[in-house]
Each structure stands twice: as C-alpha cells, then as structure tokens.
Fold this sequence. Notes:
By secondary structure, the protein is an alpha+beta fold. It contains 20 helices and 14 strands. Among the domains are: 20-133, Glutaredoxin, CATH 3.40.30.10; 220-408, Alpha/alpha barrel (Glycosyltransferase), CATH 1.50.10.20. It has helices at 3-15, 31-41, 55-64, 67-76, 88-93, 121-133, 152-169, 192-201, 205-219, 247-264, 267-283, 299-302, 306-310, 323-340, 343-359, 383-395, 399-406, 414-426, 430-438, 450-463; strands spanning 45-50, 78-83, 101-105, 111-116, 145-146, 231-232, 240-241, 245-246, 294-295, 320-322, 361-362, 365-371, 376-380, 441-442. α7 runs antiparallel to α20, α10 (247-264) packs parallel to α14 and α14 packs parallel to α16. It is globular.
Amino acid sequence: MSFILFFLLLLSCEARREYPEISKIPWERSWEKALERAGSEKKPVFVYFYAVWCSWCREYEEVLERKRVRSLISERFVPLLLDIDRDRRLFVKFGGRGTPFTVLLSPEGKMLVRFHGVAKEKDLLGLLSLVLEGSVGVLEKKKLLSVGEVSGKRCAEIKSKFIEDLKVRFDPVFGGFSAPSEGGAVFKWPTPFTYAYLLERGYLVEEALFSLDKDIEYLFDRVDGGFFNFYDRSRAFEFFFETSKSLKVNGGMILALVEAFKKTGRDEYLKLALETFSYLERNLLHGSGCYLNAQVSDPKYYNLPPEERKKRRPPHPDTAIVVEDNSRAVLGLLSLYRVTGDRRLAERAKACLRYMLSNLLEGKTLYRFYDVKNGKKGDPNFGMDVSFFSLALLEAGMKKEALRVALLEADHTWVSRSVLLYTLLKLGKKEEALELAEKLSFDPDYHNPDDMVFLIRSLELLIGRC
C-alpha cells in the first residue's frame, strides 16, 4: 500500500464520528446522575439503549435528531444514552430484547413506557406529550412462573409446552422459531441453542434443519463470511436485514452447525462452521486471544455488488471484549474441535478463557467487558457473564476455575440461573444445584426460545430424561 493511500485511510478513520458524538441532544451517560437530575429538576427520563453495531439505531437516531423531537427531549426530559453491551444490567432490568430500545421513566425512576424499534416522528412526539401530561401510568413488573416442585411430571409439562410453542412459532415458509407465539411465526433472529437442542434430542428435526438452512440462505455473508444478526419481514415490500455481525450470533451458529453435521452427516454444515470460525479469526480476533463483540453495521457497504465490496474495506469491529459473548463463542469452538480434532480451535478457546480469568476476574469480581479503546472495565458480576463463563470453563475441562466462577455472588436473571443450574449439575454440585432449583422461576412469555433451553436441560439432568 502506498504512503498516500495509507494516509488517506488513516484520515478517513480519524474523521469517522459516530453517535453520540454527532448528536445535538445533551445526553447523560450515567444512570445515577440522570436519576439525580430527574429528581431535582422534576423531569421524566428519556432512556435510549443503543449499540454501535446496530443498523436500526442509525434510523432511529435520525428521528431523534429532528428539530421538534430533539428540542422536546432536550428541554422537557433528562436524556440518558446507554450502550446495551456496556450497560447490559439496566438493559435486562427494563426488559430489553433488542435495539433500539427506549424506556421512559417518571422523575422518581419508575417505568412508564418501553418499546423496541424505530418510532415515527409523529408517534414519538405524541407519546412524549402523553408522558409530560401525566396520562401514562406506571408499568407493572412482569411476573415469573415458579418451576415449583422439581418432579418428572413437572419437567414433562414444561418441556411439552416448550415443544408445542415451538410448533406455533415455526414459519414453514421462511423458517425460524423466534417470533412471539401470539404474534405469528415471523422469522427474526437465529436461535442456535434451540436448533442444537432439538437436533440432539430428535425433536422437530425437520423444522430445525429447515430453519437453519434459511438462516444460511438469508443471513450468511458469502462475500466476507459470518452471519448477520437478523432480518425483518414485518416491513412490507422490503427485505431488511441487520448488517451487524455479532460474536454471540456467530459463536452460537457454529454450535448449531456442528449439531446439524452430527445429525445429518452433511459436510456442508461442517464446512460452514469452519468458515464461520475463519470469519471470527479474520474480523473479530483481538491480540488478547479473545474476540471483539461485533462487526458494526454498514448498510451502504453490504448493499454494494459483491465485486464492489471486495474493493472496499469492510466495516470495523466494536472495541469491547465481552465475557458472555466470548464464553458462548468458546462453546461453539469446543463443539467444532470435538468433531474435527483441529487443535487450533481448542487452543483459541483456552487462550480466551485464560485471558478472561487473568484480566476480567479480580478476586470475587468478574467484569462484564474490557474496552480495548479506552482501557475501561465495567458492569461487575452480571449473571449472564458468570453463568456462561463458568459453563465455558467446564466444557474446556477447567473444573476448578468453573466452580470458582459459578459460586460468585451475581445479579442473576432467570435465564442465567438456568445456565448456572445446568453448570452446577454438570460439576456434580448437587446440593448447591438443588438449593438453586428451589428458587427457580421463568418467564412463560419468553421472547427467545434459546432462553428456555438451559432450563429444560437442567430439569432433564435433575430428573433424567422427562
């Protein structure tokens, strides 16, 4: 590369300014400071959860920056901008499922409104006005359903309802199980843990393979490799897909592809799993031995013809190493190692685990992320990190370290408790597992069926195949 070309590329990187740098809204970035301001100024809080890799967020930000919307948010609300990867605990607390995610709070911090997706300017202005008028009540906290007495009958009931719900969710044309069952089966996200479970157990095998094949058809990038996060068929006459590629999705898809290969013997599944690993190595690998959490969205780049894309530089990755996402990826790499015997996979998995043990676990504190751009660590002892990290350590044969992480005091969700229960049972810690199982509840209206898989796997370990 010539010096001039290199200089121009360097200038283009330095000139790139991303949200919130380009925003004219005076965003707070601290939850505590925003609540303090809301109380003292008697203003509601406008919370916007975004991600640097999110295509839809760029659309929504165009709406937020329009003069009438921007003025209303800036003058009448306390605007709070949070990153779903770096502020994950709050994202989960408010029921976040995807981005963009908006939450409106009372001056006392009580939730009034929440919604996902891109709101039109007129609709958003109307909603903000209703909040300011005091016409919106406090949202009730969602109730979880207790697992109750752990028995073979109860296990069979929960599993049967899960399988029946998957049948309702399944889209026989476009594949997928990811839509809310009451809303019909509209494919949106890959559900790799669900595919892997169904293929392993022999339930809905044809539906799982069909859905996986549709993921490959619609979401795998044949130019640069890797799976996009999702696509959305709810937009009439428009095929819209999220042009970011996350570590979480790609690590999970490796796991699902391996299980499909084991079930069918079809080499194309194994080949694609290896190609996905190569994508991670080329695009998300950090010098630490772990992976960065996502390659950012860029619809303009991905809508170019393949030959034009090959002449251009692909989108850059985000700068966060996230424990949960790397742990999920490790599970995929280890599953691929077991069927190929390729030592690179096991070595990469263990190198990443060792890095997180050395750099993100400090005493009894496990940090969720390390931002390589600014050197910051944050969000300590979040349950999803603790549970998936301990499971990944266990799968890598690092049992002592897995138990140490599993026993950390953490802020758990029902999903992370399910993963933790599964890990404790696999570690042979029956007493600790039973104590956890007695307190276990779950959301019967779960949005993503992957959330249910470890609950069912745990019940199966407790009871035997139910």
